[in-house]
Design goal:
Blueprint (H helix, E strand, L loop, with lengths): L22 E2 L11 E4 L4 E5 L4 E2 L19 H7 L34 H12 L11 E3 L11 E2 L2 E2 L5 E4 L9 E4 L8 E2 L14 E4 L9 E5 L19 E5 L10 E4 L2 E4 L7 E4 L2 E4 L7 E7 L6 E5 L8 E6 L2 E3 L5 E2 L7 E5 L9 E7 L1
Parallel strand pairs: 1-2, 5-8
Antiparallel strand pairs: 2-3, 3-4, 6-7, 8-9, 9-10, 11-12, 12-13, 14-15, 16-17, 18-24, 19-23, 20-21, 20-24, 22-23
């Protein structure tokens, strides 16, 4: 039997024991706000909020925050996220002294380079650009008796372990970098030039200032060997050494002065030139300097003032009207009065658009 209560029941704070919520396969008709029922189809307790039935397990109906530990797949979901789907960082990202691994081969600007690719690139650069760290004291360009090289080579008194770059041996395979062991002792190949792969096409050796013939120069080996990476097989392959860098020495003359690396012009007295803070120029009273300008006739003008700024009151003026020379000796005013201007009078007035070329020499 079902008892019907027509009004609220006040339990006065007491427990309601062995209570069973109404079991229904669908929402009851005419629900009121706060009415609860048990969904026997989905096995969920629901209540009506005045608008819809609330499913308490549906996260869209939750508010507040939930700690990660209570989300069963939180760690797996985060670890499955790809960087490509995340917003790009706007600050430095510390890596905690860890490395990236599995990088693709870089092919453009802004891409990270994997270590093996980087070292390969360095090796490729090094091939053909092998500069020996220790310079040679002298370089010989003619045959040197390597068995008894002597005490002095190219003006340098040889010392133990001095290095010789031999480039002119009668047998080209004997060329190379040697160590001096004494005037009457055989020179031996330098340790850094006496093993397989130590001399390549592009190997370079610097020669110091102690060599009086070729001081402060750099030499390159250009021959292609038969060894690995075209290396020279020592004693078998020819070595060809050429000078690729040398200091340039400039020598002064009667018109050019070189002092402490400064190159200056030498101006002869009365030669018509002068030097000032603004540069080299023609001195007052020196060689004739032309001032050139072009006037245009208009059919009425017969007088023009030309400013030449040549600093002379006695210039020579040459005028050409439509390409033909026109004598102006008695038509030029200003001589003796102005050092910057002349006035040219032409009669009759040149026709409209006629080109009038003026050259003033002072």
């Amino acid at each position: 039997m079902v008892d019907n209560f027509g009004k609220p029941v006040d339990l006065h704070g007491n427990e309601m024991r062995n209570m069973v919520i109404q079991n229904l396969g669908s929402a009851p008709a005419g629900e009121g706000a706060g009415q609860m029922w048990f969904d026997t189809v989905n096995h969920l307790l629901k209540w009506f909020n005045g608008t819809i039935d609330i499913d308490p397990l549906n996260r869209t109906n939750h508010s507040g925050s939930q700690i990660a530990a209570t989300i069963s797949d939180f760690t797996a979901a985060v670890q499955a996220l790809r960087w490509a789907s995340m917003t790009a960082p706007n600050a430095a990202v510390p890596m905690g002294a860890q490395n990236f691994s599995g990088l693709a081969t870089a092919s453009g600007a802004g891409q990270a380079v994997e270590y093996a690719q980087f070292t390969t690139a360095l090796a490729n650069i090094a091939t053909g650009m092998d500069l020996k760290e220790t310079q040679a004291q002298v370089v010989t360009t003619t045959n040197l008796n390597l068995a008894t090289p002597g005490a002095t080579i190219n003006g340098h008194a040889m010392l133990a372990n001095d290095r010789i770059l031999a480039t002119g041996q009668t047998t080209a395979s004997a060329n190379g970098l040697y160590v001096w062991n004494g005037a009457a002792s055989s020179a031996t190949r330098a340790p850094d030039a006496n093993t397989a792969g130590s001399i390549l096409p592009g190997t370079m050796v610097a020669v110091g200032s102690t060599d009086s013939t070729n001081p402060d120069t750099v030499w390159m080996q250009t021959a292609t060997g038969t060894g690995t990476n075209n290396a020279i097989v020592l004693g078998t392959d020819s070595q060809t050494w050429i000078k690729v860098l040398s200091p340039v020495t400039y020598t002064g003359s009667t018109s050019i002065s070189i002092v402490a690396g400064v190159i200056s012009a030498i101006v002869a007295a009365g030669g018509g030139l002068s030097i000032s803070g603004s540069g080299l120029g023609i001195a007052a009273g020196g060689a004739a300097r032309p001032y050139l300008t072009t006037l245009t006739g208009d059919g009425t003008t017969t007088s023009w003032t030309v400013t030449h700024n040549l600093g002379t009151a006695n210039p020579v003026v040459v005028v050409r009207i439509a390409g033909a020379k026109w004598e102006t000796d008695d038509q030029v005013a200003g001589a003796g009065a102005s050092t910057t201007q002349v006035t040219i009078g032409i009669s009759p007035a040149p026709a409209n658009a006629t080109a009038i070329s003026v050259a003033v020499y002072g």
